[in-house]
Write a structure and sequence with these properties.
This protein is mostly helical. It has five helices and no strands. The radius of gyration is 18 Å and the shape is elongated.
């Protein structure tokens, strides 16, 4: 896809509104899941010596990985991915 086609897609007002609504919905979904991963990480740090001894950056990477896995699985199990493919921009 050329950069001109991408720009044309961005400039399409209806398409841009749809994209922004989808981005906001994903952002809202990420808030509670982020808290769950954060709380889980804190609990794991309290209960596990090997995890507590890790570098802060490594812990953050593990948290992001778990966050992505949980998000993907929940979207797949709940049918969000199937709905999004039918109604969203991804599969067009």
């Amino acid at each position: 896809m050329s950069s001109l086609n991408i720009w044309d897609s961005i400039m399409n007002i209806e398409s841009t509104q749809t994209l922004l609504i989808e981005a906001i919905a994903v952002g809202i979904l990420m808030i509670p899941l982020g808290f769950i991963v954060f709380i889980g990480s804190a609990e794991l740090s309290k209960r596990s010596r090997w995890y507590d001894g890790l570098n802060r950056d490594i812990k953050m990477c593990i948290g992001f990985f778990i966050y992505g896995v949980i998000t993907h699985l929940l979207c797949e199990i709940s049918g969000i991915n199937k709905w999004y493919c039918k109604h969203g921009r991804a599969c067009r």
